[in-house]
Design goal:
By secondary structure, this protein is an alpha+beta fold. The chain has a domain at 5-70: SH3 type barrels. It has helices spanning 61-70, 98-116, and strands spanning 5-9, 18-24, 29-34, 39-42, 46-52. A 5-stranded antiparallel β-sheet has the order 4-3-2-1-5. It is elongated.
Length: 117
C-alpha cells in the first residue's frame, strides 16, 4: 500500500468507512485517516479502491477530509455532542431537630420497657 491509497475498512468498529493511507509503518501496517479515526491498521483489514489521491505524508485530518471530498467521496463528519444541560438542584432534606430526637428516644425507651414486662 502506498500513501494516498483510498480504502474501505472491512473489520472493526470502523468497518465500512472510507479511509486514506497517510503513512506506512511496515509491510503489514499502515496509518489511515478519513471517515474513521486516525489509527494504525493492518492491511488485511483494508479493501483498496482504484483511486489514489496525492497527499503528503502524515497530513492533518482536515486535509484528508478535503482531499476525499475533492475526489468525490461523501464524508459524514462526526456530530459533536451538545453541551450538557444544568441539572436542577436536588432537594435538601431537613434534619430532625433536637426536640424530635429526644421524643424519639423516649418512645424507644417506653417500647423497651413494655417488652420487658
Amino acid at each position: 500500500m502506498e500513501i494516498g491509497q483510498v480504502c474501505v475498512k472491512i473489520a472493526g468498529r470502523d468497518a465500512g468507512s472510507i479511509c486514506l493511507v497517510i503513512d506506512t509503518i511496515d509491510h503489514n501496517f499502515v496509518v489511515v485517516d478519513g471517515q474513521c479515526r486516525r489509527k494504525k491498521c493492518n492491511i488485511k483489514h483494508l479493501e483498496p479502491l482504484e483511486k489514489r489521491i496525492e497527499i503528503k505524508r502524515n497530513a492533518s485530518h482536515e486535509e484528508v477530509l478535503e482531499a476525499l471530498k475533492g475526489a468525490g467521496f461523501e464524508i459524514n463528519e462526526a456530530v459533536k455532542k451538545s453541551e450538557k444541560k444544568e441539572k436542577p438542584p436536588k432537594p435538601v432534606s431537613k434534619r430532625k431537630s433536637a426536640m424530635s430526637n429526644e421524643s424519639a428516644e423516649s418512645k424507644t425507651k417506653k417500647q423497651n420497657k413494655a417488652k420487658e414486662k
